[in-house]
């Protein structure tokens, strides 16, 4: 395993799995403490746990892709799309809703992972084609 090639997938996989557990692990406790809103509705609990499942699944894929060379490109591409998509959503929210002190650091990290993934895809795709 090449650390420099796989570190993006390893770090973002761990962070996204942790975020998923935070969002869906115990939403009736975490959301009021972290984000200041109550989660009493069954559908909201279901939605937050579904988001948890998405985050756990995609994070696991990235971790597996870091260790399985045949999955690396697909895992990195999905990482770039995820980080680019979530960054885009946060930028739209920032423009329309204002700056979020809680989620601005997340936006910065997501943009860094997005750029890092693009860099890795370009760098290692060229090496593998040589």
Automatic annotation (TrEMBL):
Transmembrane listed as a keyword: yes
Pfam families: DUF4345 (PF14248)
TM stretches of this protein: 7-26, 46-64, 71-92, 98-119
InterPro entries per the UniProt record, alphabetical: DUF4345 (IPR025597)
Keyword Kinase on entry: no
Protein name per its UniProtKB record: DUF4345 domain-containing protein
Domain of life of the native organism: Bacteria
UniProt entry keywords in alphabetical sequence: Membrane, Transmembrane, Transmembrane helix
Lineage: Bacteria, Pseudomonadati, Bacteroidota, Flavobacteriia, Flavobacteriales
């Amino acid at each position: 395993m090449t650390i420099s090639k796989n570190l993006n997938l390893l770090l973002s996989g761990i962070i996204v799995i942790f975020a998923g557990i935070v969002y869906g692990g115990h939403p009736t406790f975490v959301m009021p403490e972290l984000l200041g809103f109550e989660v009493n509705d069954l559908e909201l609990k279901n939605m937050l746990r579904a988001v948890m499942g998405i985050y756990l699944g995609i994070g696991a894929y990235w971790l597996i892709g870091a260790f399985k060379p045949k999955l690396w490109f697909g895992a990195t591409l999905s990482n770039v799309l995820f980080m680019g998509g979530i960054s885009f959503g946060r930028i739209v929210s920032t423009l329309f809703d204002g700056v979020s002190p809680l989620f601005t650091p997340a936006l910065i990290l997501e943009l860094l992972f997005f750029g890092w993934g693009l860099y890795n895809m370009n760098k290692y795709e060229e090496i593998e084609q040589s």
